[in-house]
From TrEMBL:
Residues 258-376 form the OmpA-like domain. Pfam families: OmpA. It comes from Cellulomonas flavigena (strain ATCC 482 / DSM 20109 / BCRC 11376 / JCM 18109 / NBRC 3775 / NCIMB 8073 / NRS 134). It comes from the Bacteria. Its main location: membrane. It is found in: Cell outer membrane. This is OmpA/MotB domain protein.
């Protein structure tokens, strides 16, 4: 790991805040029983308080993660987390899995630690210096050898003043739904116990030197503790989250953020061969698009037709225009009075999303896209009708862990779900159900190497983006966001709202949690799936995953 920028000083998530998070209390200001109590205001959590904990497996040990409040510091908020072993380790411990195998964006740890504002659908990355490296403290945060463990402190862009909490994604732990944001002094970037131990050692050495005037031992001066160098932060990235759903057996795919929606309709569902007349079967698909448009402020709706390469350019261009016009006419009839304006275009075969080298790919290229850039004013859930598609992997029911044999390892997987600001969050636990110890093997069936997005896109290697939620014939993909693009991948690299590195060392007897954030969905149970169940017999489908009632965090309505 490259050096971090610092400077010298000048099994479910468990909430552990006690009275500091309670209501304001009344304490007596007098011993007189008839005296009027003097009201006092609860100060709330303090910077060194621990507001949440979880346990993660790392380097063959179960480590406790202790989360402190986020503290505002000018244009930043600062996260402080302690990682503590159950006892002093025998060897130096290296924390792994905090980076990402990225093709475009910064890969340096701890970029896999992220803050999320799921009310406003944005994700925050750690602040970086002029070289693009994360600004963190202390410099050796990823290594420790004492029972005190290590402390990690890192800055992020400060949210608006009215935001009082954010969600925290920390590798190996369930998503921390609500970490409070406070004003106050930053905690020490080095754990107070480490500072005290260093000072005590220096004092002992000085006392010994004073007690032996004839000796002249070298007494090293205690270096001041490191401090997070906020002045080194050049950029603190904030990315808009996007959601992707595939409805009606994949015939309608919707990608949306708070600012834009794009719906892709498969032409084979809308039209007969060589025709621009909508079929009766197209009605449900067109109605879904109209519903998505109705959720947003009035704007200019782009309707664009595309074909495969099976006819000549001129013919395909004309066909694509006529098909786009047919869809636009049908939509206009359903959203009349909304203020939306339809703009129609045909691109023929000029913009394929995949190579036209198979019938399956040509079907993907035959499509009509409908896009609108405007803000959400209301929300409706995706459709949940239809049947689950066939699946050839391991199938089980949530509540009874399914057994997955992968290579030399045996795993047990189970899942639960909850809502955070309306979003469905699935917490998958994977347990090492064998006696393997110290062989440094990861959970193979979790590792992914691609993205659900078509075109010239890429995703980090060994991500966990293979996991989807199924509800009837509808598939929901984890929320994702575009971190950059280059000449090789002009459509961008996409990170998911899930673990960005699945290659973690997990021993037999240990359990690791993976959290996945999905679009908003109002259901009591769902099906959760890892992989397609086609290529690998270690793919997993869990049925009847319970969604906890209510919402862990109250969800505000649409914002201006």
């Amino acid at each position: 790991m490259r050096p971090s920028r610092t400077r010298p000083a000048k099994h479910l998530t468990t909430l552990v805040v006690a009275s500091a998070l309670g209501l304001a209390a009344c304490t007596g200001g007098s011993t007189d029983p008839d005296a009027t109590p003097t009201p006092t205001v609860d100060p709330g959590p303090q910077p060194e308080d621990v507001v949440a904990t979880a346990v993660i497996p790392e380097a063959g040990m179960d480590l406790e993660v202790r989360v402190h409040p986020l503290v505002r510091a000018g244009e930043h908020v600062v996260l402080t987390v302690d990682v503590v072993p159950p006892e002093a380790p025998e060897d130096l411990v290296h924390l792994r899995g905090f980076g990402v195998t990225s093709f475009i964006a910064s890969s340096w740890p701890p970029v896999n630690v992220r803050l999320m504002d799921l009310a406003r659908d944005v994700v925050l990355h750690v602040g970086a210096d002029s070289d693009g490296e994360p600004v963190v403290a202390p410099e050796d945060w990823s290594r420790f050898r004492t029972e005190r463990g290590t402390r990690l402190q890192m800055p992020f862009a400060a949210p608006a003043d009215d935001v009082d909490a954010l969600s925290l994604f920390f590798p190996g732990a369930p998503l921390f739904a609500q970490v409070p944001i406070i004003d106050g002094e930053l905690p020490s970037a080095v754990h107070p116990d480490d500072v005290a131990a260093a000072e005590a050692a220096a004092a002992t050495a000085a006392a010994r030197a004073s007690a032996s005037p004839s000796a002249t031992p070298d007494v090293e001066e205690t270096a001041p503790p490191e401090e997070l160098d906020l002045d080194a932060v050049v950029e603190a990235p904030v990315f808009p989250l996007e959601s992707t759903t595939a409805e009606l057996d994949g015939a309608v795919q919707t990608i949306e953020s708070t600012e834009k929606v794009e719906v892709t309709l498969g032409s084979d569902v809308l039209f007969a061969f060589d025709s621009a007349d909508l079929t009766p079967e197209s009605a449900d698909a067109v109605a879904l698009v109209a519903q998505r448009l109705a959720e947003r402020e009035a704007g200019s709706v782009e309707v664009v037709g595309h074909t495969d390469d099976q006819a000549d350019d001129t013919y395909n261009l004309d066909l694509s225009r006529r098909r786009a016009q047919a869809v636009a006419d049908a939509l206009e009839a359903q959203v009349a009075g909304s203020g939306h304006r339809m703009r129609v275009a045909g691109r023929g075969e000029s913009e394929p999303v995949v190579p036209n080298d198979s019938e399956e790919n040509r079907a993907l290229n035959r499509r009509v896209t409908v896009s609108l850039t405007s803000k959400v004013v209301t929300r409706t859930d995706v459709t949940t009708t239809g049947e689950l598609p066939p699946f050839g992997g391991v199938v089980g029911t949530a509540g009874t862990p399914v057994r997955v044999e992968s290579g030399s390892r045996v795993w047990e997987a189970d899942a639960t779900a909850r809502r955070v600001h309306g979003h469905v969050v699935v917490d998958l636990t994977v347990h090492g159900a064998d006696e393997e110890d110290g062989n440094h093997t990861a959970i193979g069936f979790m590792r992914g190497f691609g993205t659900h997005r078509l075109g010239d896109t890429i995703a980090p290697h060994e991500n966990t983006a293979r996991a989807t939620v199924l509800q009837g014939a509808t598939r929901l993909f984890p929320l994702d966001y575009r971190v950059g693009e280059n000449e090789a991948y002009p459509d961008g690299e996409w990170f998911t709202a899930s673990d960005l590195h699945a290659g973690h060392w997990v021993d037999g007897g240990q359990t690791r949690t993976y959290s996945f954030v999905y679009p908003r969905l109002d259901v009591d149970t769902l099906a959760f799936q890892i992989g397609t169940g086609i290529a690998f017999d270690t793919d997993v489908r869990l049925l009847d995953v319970p969604v906890a009632p209510g919402d862990e965090v109250a969800t505000p309505g649409p914002r201006d």
